[in-house]
Fold each of these.
Amino acid sequence: MAKLEGKVALVTGAARGIGFAIADKLAQEGASVVLFDLCAEEDGVAAAAKIAQERGVTAKFQRCDVSNYEAVQTNVKAVIKEMGGVDILVNNAGICRDKVLLAMSEQDWDLVLNINLKSMFNTIKACYRNFMKKKAGKIINISSVSGLMGNAAQANYTAAKGGVIALTKTVARELATRGVNCNAVAPGAIETPMTASMDQEALKALLATVPMGHMGKAEDIANCVAFLASDDAKYITGEVIRVDGGIAM
Ligand code: NDP
């Protein structure tokens, strides 16, 4: 039997990149998946249809700005009603707006903190009672090695990703006796549309710091998330797993 058969997974930022690979992998393991993303409706619907067709599971798309508290509460409530609950919550949506702190605008600080960190407060809060009632659940938050190490020109992003780790540990402690695991994954340099849009010189410099000498694939992150979402990881909580080719060891 597939490891996640009968489970419902909600994945944010799931229309492309790492989020799509995660939703696809969880579906491959038998989970029904709900994809939240801010992309164009037709792109999100196409992403969900591809997963449903290739993996033979229920896959739905919901356009939702995860930084918007009210929108998240409303949409998660609808998912819980329609799907009978949420078993696995993967908080993946994220953006970067890189500049040295002196040149960073207040707007870019707020935007990155809202999408990368506040979004997780929004979704976890929306799913909290559902997990307490089920006395089971897996919450997996996507952080970054930048949140562990800091990174010049990423004050907003690193503060958010470091915050994700602290939030993960707090939620893990709050829900530990309720059968809910909460863990974080810290990717290094992964090939996605986000890194494709990076300054290529900066990317080259970043790659020079990777002990394994190459970038990772979205699937490398998805495999780790699928492990954390399964009962193979049932005694792991409050952990941060680096999937980074050794950058932050
Ligand atoms: P992408 O930019 O490729 O994908 C991010 C997805 O999130 C997009 O589909 C985007 O939608 C969506 N999104 C953005 N804002 C929102 C929002 N407010 N509400 C809902 N969805 C939103 O990024 P990656 O796949 O590279 O990154 C995924 C996660 O992994 C992020 O949290 C990132 O910080 C983290 N990470 C990535 C690394 C990498 O090397 N790629 C390294 C370390 C961490 P759209 O833009 O269409 O609106």
Amino acid sequence: MSATVLVTGGAGFIGSHTCVELLDHGYDVVVLDDHSNSSPRALERIAKVAGRPVTAAYESDLRDRRALSAVFAAHPVDAVIHFAAKKAVGESVEKPVEYYDTNVGGTTALLSAMREHGVHRLVFSSSCSIYGDAAKVPLAEDDPAGPTNPYATTKWLCEQVLADVCRRLPEMSVLALRYFNPVGAHPSGLLGEDPRGVPNNVMPFLTQVAVGRLPRLRVFGDDYATADGTGVRDYIHVMDVADGHRVALEHLDDDTGMRTFNLGTGAGTSVLELVAAFSRACGRPVPYEVTARRPGDVAALVADPGAVARAWNWATTRDLAAMCRDAWAFQELNPSGYPD
Ligand code: UD1
């Protein structure tokens, strides 16, 4: 019998790619998603790409404890991958309570249901944003945290809750994966990033400019202490992020307790370098203008990917050109995103 993985936020950008990866590797997948920032259509695309559907998909808020408990009761869940969360930095500054409630409250509701149903294995979606305005890059897991916005603080708080729960409940095994900047799409062009409304993040913004939905990219500041003055990030292909989660499941039982790993490439790319790479991928120059800095942004965030390489012999395999090519293929095939 194959193992069943509950994927919260499984219809979202990273969640949907991870579902395909799990189905491709023989796992049975149960999805729970409230579709507040994802399309139910993604589930159809998952089935199309993987050649078989998820076992079940529930539309529900994680904090609906009765509904959550029923999901655990209905399926023999071996492990949970927990993506479901709000993730827009700017919005988190305006609505901090909502962010704490959804992200931290969702995680504690999930932990309660896991306890109730005897499930001890969890992969948690964390973020490089917990490092905050880092004094140096690359960043290793034991570098100090200093979240600069409520979104990042929710991720940092969840990590601490999980670490403390693991200290007190020795049967628990938790892996927190701190992703740097996931971009790209499934190479089929059928799955990708389809944010609701105007995108916050740079790659979906770029693809929507290229396809003509938005006039030009605004480059948020060119006076940072970086080589060309624009913000530097460690972009990681979403297929590598998905692969990292599948490999994490295989390593959950290496040890009990809480372990934390960066998922990044170790390479920094500036906004202008990203615009140039994306322009090559889509075959036309993408218009942009330099504007003021975006509040809360930091100059550079780049992973030291050494720990996960040493622990699991794992590293990313896809480069920036592939990230741009695949992001563009999805946007070209789905100019308005997933159909309504
Ligand atoms: C942020 C979070 C990250 C989170 C991600 C998902 C921080 C430091 N990082 O990433 O943890 O996972 O959101 O929402 O809180 N840019 C432009 N023009 C745009 C958009 C972005 O120039 O229209 C620039 C930004 O200034 C930045 C880079 O592009 O230098 C990447 O921005 P973005 O894609 O929004 O990601 P982060 O802010 O790095």
